[in-house]
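### Sample
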Amino acid sequence: MKKSKRRNRRKKEQALARVLTVLLVTGLCLTGVLIWQREKRTAATQTAMEDADGRPPLDVELLTVNPYSRPGTAIGPIRGIVIHYTANPGSSARQNRDYFEGLKDSGETHASSHFIIGLDGEIVQCIPCNEISYASNDRNDDTISIECCIPDETGQFRPETYQSLVTLTSWLCRRYGLSADQVIRHYDVTGKLCPKYYVEHPEAWEQFKSELETS
């Protein structure tokens, strides 16, 4: 009789343990679902805020901190945006980003940019906006730099590249309280033929700046 009672008690304890295990697993699953839903809502809210603010989609691929392309030096108050072109027809934003990254090993020169816009309008961010880039010579310490990929030797941007440039530059102007007159060419800093098409076609440059004022 006592053995029978012990067996019944063990069975009840085992059944209770199984019920508790099921409840625990169910609780963990529900917690995971709630966390996932919360993170999804947070991401959706962040995306909506970015869209409302006009920021275009960015592929953030920051360079490794190094002396040749990302020194990690804090930038001063932002007083301008400098537009560049890659002078490397047919190359992609990622290829130019990887070139900047490779300078940490080759040490062949000092070069980089905060943003690179590709042939299809994709935007890669290489350096945080609170650090300097090696792009604009004497204006490195107070400007954000944007490199644009080109399809051929004319230096003219593809429509996709151009539209992303307008959107990105407009967003940066709003972010830092800049006017269209504070958006300049690399040429305006050093006299270098950069961006080539906008130096050779100043009317196209003025058209670009006028679009910034209405974006």
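The longest strand covers residues 80-85. This sample (N-acetylmuramoyl-L-alanine amidase) is used throughout the tutorial notebook.
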